[in-house]
């Protein structure tokens, strides 16, 4: 028992210190992504998570904000915006092409700015 | 304890060291959902889980956890036996030892507390119950076979300031519950729960000279502390609990001081004392809301002293359980995992008619559970654990749950898994002590009372479709589950009415269960819930293959609830009606008894109805009245050989229907928020 506890302690010390020294491995960002409904939510989150380095992506239907936690060593916010736009959803920096937008289901055709 | 403290201090220091601020916005708080429905089944959850909310628990008398499943088709509540008055529950046709029963994810009803444990948690303490059909998660252990029931108690942080609940019934049972709550500081809150119940007068509705319900009294006190600090990510629970329960039953003229362990009159006393201490510490990592670590510890001391006529049975269990869980993700939140370590220690001091059958069990195990979620239609949970147990050996336990949404508002689920357990044959079947049966264990080479561990595989599929019927929401669910026993500690009452035999399974044993649910909102505020259940539970006994005794092959369940609009100041009426029909049940073999002490091979089919009316006068005060078994159906012969309780044919254990007739109750709830 004693050894197990000791082992676990060491493990967590290691994990915690590593995670804290390189802060950009868990960088938080949030920005607006245009969309309407739960289907949009699934599509946006899937697209964001498809980018290698994105650890968590949550899009809120009420305020249209996408909350991200990304590993900055592996990707940038722009990468995520590109991926989301490719799936049909506009962001401030990257817009979806008309082709992709038009293919979205009716309920997902948000008002473009 | 010292080691635990050291460990925590170290963790604390690590955290303190790394506190460069960036506020943490999402300490995983439990979502408080609007309680529109009493029973909730999710279309997105991976496992086949029903959530029973506190609203549902108010629909029936619900004096304790054992009674809180009456309005729920997933769990079958048996009729309390003539002796102990406690209700046993079944899931997929298997009795509670095959269900993992946890309280806030710490195993609670197991070992010595198996027979009466559910009656040791008062209903008012319960916040919600999650019922999972099938294999279950590997995180809590390897013992679950047919499913898992987890009870969440009311959390001190969310508790109301004061609750008073009083209850009285025509079977002369009285209950009193008081809750006190205090928010000590921003981060600490505490609750004190005090419960007492008693049955004061002797009832003998069927004039057999025996009490229909035991006399009893219970005192149950719990003190809970909750700590939560969203800035640091630390959460903690501490619980301390003491319970004392005394029951007396038997012949009306039995006086324990005079007649205990004599043949003057037949009588029984079951006295239990239990002390519990549990602690939980959790930490959610900074900037990583998906990563957390939890450490649970539970100590309990359970002491039951009892006798049943001339049979004496004492069991004392000292138990320690510890679970360390680490939750995180692999690359992103579509891939989650939980990994950790378990340790259990159980010391049993057990005496069956003064024969010492004491033992010590301990086990250490490690588990890993991976959850894949495509954030859309498909998800699965694959888990495995490796345990070493001094009596069960080293073994691997795999479990799998899969969910797929083939089209809108539909969900298809599959689960499979293995369970293994040591059967506490005496504690689990102690109702058989209240008979003239002689107990024999026919095998000697196993490590648990001479028997081998029980091993079973459980597989199941479930399909749910929600739809609109005439513009009203409706849903239909079809479940099929099968449990295959590789070994079982067979309890044989089919061989002879004078014997209870225990042996390792020789041949086949399986349980098939099929359930068809249909629920409909008939009009606004009027809900109908129906279920048909088919059970085929067959075991090869020495004398042949039979359906499991006291299990109906066909059951039908119906529940109708109606609530008026909530008017000024929360004024409301609520009506609830439950109907249960049970088909014929295989009865234990009594063919060799003389005619007057014989029961037929199968019981007759019958139905039982319960109803309750609740009147809410304001948000602080409500009253309820209700009736159980309104149709007054009674088992004719509840006790075999009741005219000669020390003779060879005496048996109180064959109860297939209510023994007590109709029962009415009333109660009140007073709250200060």
**SSE string of chain A, helix = H, strand = E?**
HEHEEHH
Mean pLDDT of chain B: 90
What structural class is derived from the secondary structure elements of chain B?
mainly beta
Mean pLDDT of chain A, nearest integer? 84
Radius of gyration of chain B: 25 Å
Largest sheet of chain A: 3 strands, antiparallel
**Could you say which overall geometry of chain B the principal axes of the C-alpha atoms support?**
globular
Helix content of chain B: under 10%
Compute the number of strand runs of chain B: 36
Describe this entry's structure for a reader.
The complex is a heterodimer of chains A (113) and B (673). With 113 residues, chain A is of the alpha+beta class. Chain A has four helices and three strands, in the order αβαββαα. Chain A has a three-stranded antiparallel sheet, with helices on one face. In chain A, helix 2 crosses helix 3. The mean pLDDT of chain A is 84. Chain B is mainly beta. Helices cover 4% and strands 54% of the residues of chain B. Chain B is globular. Classes of the chains: A alpha+beta (113), B mainly beta (673). The A-B interface holds A 1-2, 4-5, 8-9, 12-13, 16-17, 19-20, 23, 26, 28, 42, 45-46, 49, 52, 54-57, 69 and B 3-4, 7, 10-11, 14-15, 17-18, 20, 22, 285-290, 293, 324, 326, 329, 331-334, 341, 343, 374-376.
Tags for this model:
heterodimer, A: 113 residues, alpha+beta, three-stranded antiparallel sheet, 3 strands, elongated, B: 673 residues, mainly beta, 4 helices, globular, disordered N terminus
